Amino acid sequence: MANYMGKGIKRVEDPRFIQGQGKYVANLQIYGMTHAAIKRSPYPHAKINSIDTAEAEALEGVLAVFTGQDMIDGGVGPIPCGFTPPDIKLPPHYSLAVDKVRHVGDGVAVVVAETAYIAYDALDLIEVDYEPLEAIVDAKEAMADGAPQLHEETPNNLSFTWPIGNEEEVNNALAQCDHVVEVDLINQRLIPNAMEPRAAVAQWDGAMENLTLWTTSQNPHTIRLLMSAFTFGIPEHKLRVISPDVGGGFGSKIFHYAEELIVPFCARAIGRPVKWVATRSEAHLTDAHGRDHISRAKMGMTKDGEFQALHIETYANMGAYLSLFAPMIPTALYHTLMAGLYKTPLIYGITYGTMTNTTPVDAYRGAGRPEASYLLERVIDIASHDLGIDPIELRRKNFIQPDEFPYQTPVALIYDSGDYDGVFDEAVKIADYDKMRTEQSSAREEGRLVGVGVSGCIEASGAGPSAAVVGLGAAIGLYESGAIRVHPTGKITVLTGAHSHGQGHETSLAQIVGDELGVPIEDIEIVHGDTEKLPYGVGTYASRSMAVGGGALVMSAEKIRDKVTKIAAHQLEAAVEDMVYDRENGTIYVKGAPDKSKAFAEIAFAVTLANNLPEGMEPGLEETSYFDPPNFTFPNSAHICQVEIDKESGEVALQDYIAVDDVGNIINPLLVEGQIVGGVAQGVGQALWEHGAYDENGQLLSGSFMDYAMPRADGFPGIQVGRTITPSPSNPLGVKGAGEMGTIAGTVTVANAVMDALAPLGIRHIDLPLTAQKIKAAIDAANGGGD
Amino acid sequence: MYPPKFDYHKANTVQEAISLVKESDGKFIAGGHSLIPAMNLRLADPGTLVDISRLNDMKGIGGGNGVISIGALTTHAMVAASEVLPDALTEAAGMIGDPQVRNRGTVGGNVAHADPASDLPTVLMALRASFHMTSESGERSASSDEFFIDLFETALGENDVLTSISLAEEGANTGSSYQKLFNPASRYAMVGAAAQVTIENGTITAAGVAVGGLTPKATRASSVEAALVGQPANDATIASAAAAVANDLDDEVMGDIHASADYRRMMAPVFVRRALETAVSRAS
Fold first, then answer.
1. Is B185–A709 a contact, with Cβ atoms under 8 angstroms apart?
2. Residue A144 carries which DSSP code?
3. What is the model's pTM?
4. Between B2, B4, B185, which is nearest A705 by CB?
5. Residue A208, Cβ neighbours under 10 Å: how many?
6. CA of B267, closest CA in chain A: separation in Å?
7. What is the pLDDT of residues A431-488, one digit of tens each?
8. Contact state of B258 with A709 under an 8 Å Cβ cutoff
9. Is the C or the N end of chain A the one with fewer CB within 10 Å?
10. Torsion A642-A646-A647-A651 (CA) sign
11. Shortest CB distance from A701 goes to which of B3, B257, B267?
C-alpha cells in the first residue's frame, strides 16, 4: 500500500472537477443572498467631481449603493503593501477610489441588489462626473519631467529604487572586457487569466459580530491577517476566511483585493450575505497583471566567452497602486536570479518601480524569475551569435560545477545543489541536438528560416528561511504549517497551510503522509483553505508547497510515528528502541519478532480509549508542525526547441520542444509533468502571443479574449519532458519547486529559437510578443525594406 | 455576464417569426453566437428575442440539379462535415471558433451578422452563392455581390429572415480553397482569401475570388478573377493574378493591435496566391 513516492497516481480530486462538482465560491448559495456589482472607471486618469447614486438606489430590487467615501466613513482602511524596501514611497490604495481614478477599471461605487441582473442594471444609473486628466502608461516615461502625476506621495511617479551589487566594480570590469553585449529589452505586460475569475461571498453574523468571507485566494490566512491588522478592523478571531476549490491562480489570487473589503462591507451594512463574481472583462481590468519591464543589460566577457560582469537597469511598471507584493517581484525575486547557472563574478542591478495609469502589476507565475531568465538568457544567446560559439557550449563554459555547491552567488542567494551539465546532457540527448543543427543547416540552404532555441534557467523556489525573507523586506514569514489528525479508527485528516488551486495537493500531500505513516491514501483526506479548520498557514505560491508544506507534514508524521511507536512498545511490553515502524504496511513490531506487532489503526483506537498508555502520556493522536526551510530550493532546467518561420507572413510554427528539469526528488511524476507542460505553454504564450496592451492614453486594448491571445493546443507540438535529479538538501523530501520552471524557461527558449531562425538575416533582437507582423517587418527591413 | 432584460418568443413558422419581430421591434436569434456575447457585454439591448432555432425546415444541406441549398439554421459543424459542399466552404467552416461554437453557431446567423472578420461571407462571395430571404411581403433572393453591403450591413431588411443559401455544386474540373491569417486571439480572419477555379484543358475558364478580414465587408477580387480567366493554370498566372488583389483593396483596409492595415494589405496577395494554388491543384 505505501511506497507512493515517485508514483504517477492520477489526481484524486479530478473526478469531482471533471464532473462539475467542485465547490467554487460562485457555487455558494446562502439563504438571503444578495448580489454586488461594481461601477468602474472608463477613464485611465480622472478627477471625480461627484457621484450621483440616487437613481440607482431608486431602482426596484436595489438594496444599497456605496462609494469609496462610505467605506472610509465605515472604517475600512487602505490596502497595504507587504514588501517595503528602504525609502519606498507608499501611495494609499483604497478599495473604491475617492477623489481620483487612476486606471481603467478602478472601482468607484458598488451596488447591492436582490439579483445580479438588477445590480448590473443599476450600474448604468449611477452618474459619475469625471474630469479627465492626462494619463501615463510607460514605466520609464512616467519618471520624465512633466509626466502626469498619479499620487502626491510619489513625486515623478517613482515609488522605489532598489539596487544590488557594486556598480563601480561592475563598470570597471565591463571596461576591461574583450566583448560586451548591450541590449534593450522589453518584458511585456501579461494578464494572468486563471480559468475561474475572482469571486467573493461575505456573511455577517450580527449577534456574534462574526464575519465569514469566502474568497478565491491562494492564501486565506494572509487575507485574514491583513483584514484584521490593516484593512477591515475586525478582530482576527471574529473573522473566518475560506478559500474552497479555486480554479487556478498563477499568483494573481495571492493579493488582497478591493472586493475582499467591498463585499464584507456591504454584507455588514445590509445584514445579508453578498456575492460578487468577476466577469472576464473585470478580470482583465482588475486582476493584478504580470511582468511589464523595460530593461537595458550589459554583459562583459572574454573573447572565449567567459562571463566577467553583468549590469542591469530595469524600469518596472507597478501600475496605478502598489499591489500586495508588487515591489518584491522586480527586486528581491529578480536581480537575485541574475547569476543564472553561471559563475559571473560581478553583477550589478537596479530597478526603478514607477506608478502609471494601468492596472496594478504583481506576481504572475514565476514572478521576477521569468523576467530575469528572459534577460540573462537572451543576452547570452546574443553573445553566442556575436562570438560564434554554440549556445550550449557557451553556457557550459560558465556553469557552476557540481562540486561547488553550496554556491554563494554575487547576488545574495546560496544555491543548494545541481548538475547543470547533467541537465544539458539529457536535453541534448532527447532533442538529438546535433541532428537538429544539421537539419537547420540544410533548411537554411533551402532558404527556409528554421531556428533552434536553447536556454538554461534557474529558479529560487520554496523561499526561506523566514529571517532571510523578512530581511529582504517582506512582511511575511515563509514557513508552512502541517497538521496530521489521526481519528480513532485510524483514518487521517491532514490540515495543510498550503492551498491547492490546481496543483493537485489532495493527491501529492496524501502520497507524502501515506508513505510517512504506512497508511493507504484512501484513508487520508487533505483539508486546506479554511482559517477556522487549520493552524496558521502561509499559502501556495512561488513553488513552495511540496518543499515547505510537504516538509511540515514530514515533521508531523515523525511526531505521530514517535508517539505510536511508544504506545506500541508499551502495549507489547518491549523497549521503544527495540520497536520497528514498518512504513510499508503501517505496522509497529518488535525487532526480530514480527508477529509481536500492532497495526496503526489499533494504536489509533488505543490512544482514544487511553486506558493503557505509557506513564504520563497524553491521549490524542494529532500533531502540528511548522517547517521553516533553511534555504530556498533551486530547480534548474535545460530547454531546447525548434521553430520555423513563414518567410512570407512572419508566422512562427513551434515544431519541437524539449524540457529537461531538475526539480529534485519527484513525488508524483504525472503532476510534475503537468506542471512543466502547463508552465511551458504559459511561457510560450508570452513569447508568441500574449500582451496586456494599453494605448498611449491608458485604454486597455486587450480587454477580452477577442484581443488577448492565449496559448492554444494547436500552437504546440507534443512537449517532451525529461528530468535529472539532484535532491535538495533544504527540505526533508529533497524536492525542489516544479510549478514555475516551465514558464521561466519557455518564453526565452522560444524567443531564442525565433532569433536563431532570423540570425542569418542579421536580425539581433525583436521584443515580445513575437507576432507575425513584427517578424515580417524585421525580415523586410533586413532585406532592404519591403518586397 | 448579465444581459439587460429581454422578452423571449419561440417562433414556429417563418411568418410568425417575422410578425413577432415586427411587433416587438426585437431581434431574431438562432445560434446566438454573435448576439448573446454583445448582450452580455451590454453592447446590445434588443428588448425582445425571437428564437427561430426550432424552424426545422431551415436546417440541413440538400438540393439537386447541380445546385446545393444550405438552410440558414445549418450549423458550422454540419457544413464542415459535408461531403457535397465545395472544399473552400467546408474548410472555412472548420476554422470557425472551436467545436462548441461550431455545434451551435449557424451559417445564416453568421452571414446575417456580416462581421468583417468572419470567414463565411468571403467564401460565399467567391463561390457566387445566392441568399434567399423571406419578408412579410414574400420571398426574394440576392447575389453575394448584392447581399453584403457594408460593415455589419446586408441586404436583409429589419424584419427579414434569411432562410437559405444556394450555390453551384463543384464539378470535377473545379477546385476551391480558403486560406486564412488567423487573429491569434479571436481566431477570426485578419486576412481571409477564398478562391474557386474551373480548368478546362489547362486553361482557367472560370474563377471566383474574394477577400475578407481586412476589408469592412467581404470583397470580390475582380482584378484577380479577370487576371485568371482565359489564362493557363500555372504558377506564373497565379502569381500575377494574386498580386492584382491590390487593385481590389481601397483605402478602407482595417488594422488593429495584432496586424496593421499595411501588414494586412501586404498579406492579401500572399493568401490569395495560396488559395489559388490549392484551388488549382484541387481542380486538376
1. yes
2. S
3. 0.96
4. B185
5. 8
6. 7
7. 999 999 999 999 999 999 999 999 999 999 988 899 888 888 888 889 999 999 999 9
8. yes
9. C
10. negative
11. B257
